[in-house]
Amino acid sequence: MLAEYFPVLLFLVVSAIVGIALIAIGNLIGPSRPQAEKSAPYECGFEAFEDARMRFDVRYYLIAILFIIFDLEIAFVFPWATVFGKLGLVGLVEMGMFLLLLVLGFVYVWKKGALEWE
Hints:
By secondary structure, the chain is an all-alpha fold. It has helices spanning 6-29, 36-39, 58-82, 84-112.
């Protein structure tokens, strides 16, 4: 039974080796010119030297939540696409309804002006 998981283990080992090798090569070959500005903290498009209690626009969080919602739809579409042949017409109709609801939600958010940034 464990032999069935060998390809997964092999994939994890090879990906770990490639990841470590790329980081090591980047550190060895890449340029290193540290400066004070490069080492300064920078978050969310705002200067780090302002008041820590400054207000954020709600639209920033709304865009982030919308991105997560529309990004998660891919987590449902890929598995559906892999078994599409087995699901047949019922699976096609269900996924069509799912995508239609997402599109309607996107249109609603767009019409409300949630994607407008000033």
